[in-house]
Amino acid sequence: MAVPPAPRTPARLVVLVSGSGTNLQALIEASTDPEYGATIVAVGADRDGIEGLARAERHDIETFVLRTSEFEDRPAWDVALADKVASYDPDLVVLAGFMKLTGPAFLALFGGRTLNTHPALSPSFPGMHGPRDALAYGVKVTGATLFVVDEGVDTGPIVAQVAVPVLDGDDESSLHERIKTSERAMLVEWVGTLAREGFHLEDRAVRPGPDHP
Ligand code: GRF
């Protein structure tokens, strides 16, 4: 019987960002420990001039930028993104505040091994404004969700979730910052676990370890 290959050690990560990159920073710091089991081989973005790219550069991590405006249409950008990420031969791709939906070309190569983090408790409040929408709804508890990317908006199989209280007097910014503190810890813990152990899906359940141990 064929034995499934063990995960590569350290696992190769490509991280995609669009903003301040504090989730990326948490991964950079975790991955300096050889025991973590993952190394960031490249950081990509859909825009220039962001702190996320600067953080990568300060740590001598290779970076690239692919703006949608440089391409004829979104599918062409999606193909270019898939090709560029593939050139780094990653085991896992992590979307860490990447404000674009990946498309069919990207998912054909990296579906099932791309993780995204969303600042709300899925399936509530998908989309660009999770903290704002949670506040407007008046929930008392929200949080963050780490999931395996599929073709929907924040709909993929859930890896982990963390609950965060909404406090009286919160505005969007204070709530999002509180969420991000928990989100970073969850991201670091689970990216490390999945990088070291591999994972597979049982319907919508994400299980660490090989499919047929
Ligand atoms: C995170 O809350 C992420 O879930 C959301 O945008 C934020 C990115 O923060 N999509 P940072 O750029 O990692 O600081």
From TrEMBL:
Reactions catalysed according to its record: N(1)-(5-phospho-beta-D-ribosyl)glycinamide + (6R)-10-formyltetrahydrofolate = N(2)-formyl-N(1)-(5-phospho-beta-D-ribosyl)glycinamide + (6S)-5,6,7,8-tetrahydrofolate + H(+)
Keywords, sorted A to Z: Purine biosynthesis, Transferase
Pathway as given in its UniProt record: Purine metabolism; IMP biosynthesis via de novo pathway; N(2)-formyl-N(1)-(5-phospho-D-ribosyl)glycinamide from N(1)-(5-phospho-D-ribosyl)glycinamide (10-formyl THF route): step 1/1
Active site per UniProt: 118 (proton donor)
Gene3D superfamilies: Formyl transferase, N-terminal domain
Record keyword Ribonucleoprotein present: no
EC number: 2.1.2.2
Residues binding N(1)-(5-phospho-beta-D-ribosyl)glycinamide: 21-23
Gene Ontology CC annotation, any one: cytosol
CDD domains according to UniProt: FMT_core_GART (cd08645)
A GO biological process held by the record: 'de novo' IMP biosynthetic process
InterPro entries: Formyl_transf_N, Formyl_transf_N_sf, GART, GART_AS
Transferase in keyword set: yes
MF GO annotations: phosphoribosylglycinamide formyltransferase activity
Residues annotated as site: Raises pKa of active site His: 154
Binding site for (6R)-10-formyltetrahydrofolate: 74, 116
Domain of life assignment: Bacteria
Family of this protein: Belongs to the GART family.
Classification via HAMAP family: PurN (MF_01930)
NCBIfam families recorded: PurN
PANTHER family the record matches: PHOSPHORIBOSYLGLYCINAMIDE FORMYLTRANSFERASE
Function, in words: Catalyzes the transfer of a formyl group from 10-formyltetrahydrofolate to 5-phospho-ribosyl-glycinamide (GAR), producing 5-phospho-ribosyl-N-formylglycinamide (FGAR) and tetrahydrofolate.
Protein name: Phosphoribosylglycinamide formyltransferase
Organism this protein belongs to: Aeromicrobium chenweiae
Recorded name of the encoding gene: purN
